[in-house]
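In response to the reviewer comment on reproducibility (Comment 2.3), we provide here a single inverse folding case reported in full, input and output, so that an independent group could reproduce the run without further information from us. The structure tokens appear first.
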């Protein structure tokens, strides 16, 4: 089955640096096949017969062992990524700016707790996924996801998610 591992908090702001060639090599060392990376922020596509939850644990453990820090790793199937795109309420073809559309991937839950936020962002929630449209751009947003979410999560904008989908 084709998967993507989505890392949170690597190669951002000079913290938790992992060169993509090393991240690809780590995935290959775990017996994962057809490994390719997508941009510097930690997105690796690969093939495996293992289940997502087991892969998340195995990859996170290997990162900690090899690089000395632990970061959340979320694994999604190619079908889950395709379904996320199909269900996205914010489409560039409808005038939404792709770099302001965010796919919020969560380990568990629905993200419904985000509905309490009263900012200008548009938020739609689902199963282990939420969509956010940053109406004023991500850089101007006051939305603090750490405050609302009680699970591991990571965000990819539409442009990056599209690149991931293309490799899947």
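Designed residues, in position order:
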């Amino acid at each position: 089955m084709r998967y993507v591992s989505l890392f949170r908090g690597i190669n951002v702001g000079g913290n938790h640096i992992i060169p993509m060639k090393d991240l690809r090599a780590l995935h290959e060392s775990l017996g994962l096949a057809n490994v390719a990376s997508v941009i510097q922020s930690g997105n690796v596509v690969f093939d495996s017969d293992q289940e997502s939850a087991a892969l998340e644990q195995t990859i996170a453990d290997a990162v900690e062992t090899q690089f000395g820090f632990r970061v959340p790793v979320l694994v999604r199937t190619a079908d889950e990524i395709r379904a996320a795109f199909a269900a996205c309420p914010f489409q560039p073809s409808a005038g939404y700016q792709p770099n302001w559309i965010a796919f919020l991937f969560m380990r568990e839950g629905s993200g419904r707790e985000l509905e309490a936020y009263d900012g200008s962002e548009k938020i739609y929630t689902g199963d282990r996924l939420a969509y956010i449209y940053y109406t004023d751009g991500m850089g101007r947003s006051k939305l603090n996801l750490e405050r609302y979410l009680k699970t591991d999560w990571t965000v990819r904008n539409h442009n990056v998610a599209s690149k991931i989908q293309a490799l899947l």
